[in-house]
Amino acid sequence: MEPFTTLTGLVAPLDRVNVDTDQVIPKQFLKTIKRTGLREGLFFDWRKRKDGSPDPLFFLNQPRYQGATILLTRDNFGCGSSREHAPWALLDQGFQCLIAPSFADIFYNNCFQNGILPVVLRTEEVLQLMKDVIDNEGYRLTVDLYQQTVTTPKGTTYRFEIDPFRKDCLYRGLDAISLTLQHEPAIAAYESRGKAETPWLFSDIHP
């Protein structure tokens, strides 16, 4: 997992509340366990019109938002099922940071496990940013994890709260496996001691 320190990136707006994970990545794209290639299914039902052609009104189909790395959205983003494919698809699209007034709990945790920073700002702050993004093509924000700030092009700074443990893991690029491997010497010592004290637990079992 890549560390997240500071990101200055183009912002894309998704001005919708209660976006659930089935809308983020529909069920027909869940057959794979790979984390790549999922961008094709991201917001699939919203990206297409009934005839299958791209909907020019949806932000992912608009040239001005191509290459966006920050997704600005509304309340309760990521609700619904706990599918981890949702953050995978967002990351595959290039989104490294999500900003919203609130996130569903499981989705929020899954973001950290996959290297995405979910930032919670006040509703009025998000609404102001949404207006600025829509009104100004090429709108970019700077997100500083260490300082816990989001800074606009005009220098306005919004501060966000984050759990210290999650902050440290994301800042250093540590997922659950990486955290475990940090204790590899202690794990190896425990196994060696176990083999000496209770060798029968470690012996090969043959039928």
User: Helical amount among residues, as a percent range?
Assistant: 25-40%
In DSSP terms (H or I, runs of 4 or more residues), the helix count works out at 8
Might you state the CATH topology name?
A: Aconitase, domain 4
Overall pLDDT: 91
Largest sheet: 7 strands, mixed
Strand content is 5-15%
Rg calculated over all Cα atoms: 21 Å
Strand segment count: 7
SSE order? EHHEHEHEHEEEHHH
**Low-pLDDT regions:** none
CATH classification class: Alpha Beta
Give an overview in words.
The chain has 207 residues and is an alpha/beta fold. It has one domain: Aconitase, domain 4. The protein is 33% helix and 14% strand. The protein has helices at residues 21-24, 44-47, 85-93, 105-113, 123-135, 164-172, 176-181, 184-197, and strands at 6-13, 70-72, 97-100, 117-120, 140-144, 149-151, 157-159. Strands 4-3-2-1-5-6-7 form a seven-stranded mixed sheet. The relative contact order is 0.16. The mean pLDDT is 91.
Helix/strand layout:
Elements: E1 6-13, H1 21-24, H2 44-47, E2 70-72, H3 85-93, E3 97-100, H4 105-113, E4 117-120, H5 123-135, E5 140-144, E6 149-151, E7 157-159, H6 164-172, H7 176-181, H8 184-197
Parallel strand pairs: 1-2, 2-3, 3-4
Antiparallel strand pairs: 1-5, 5-6, 6-7
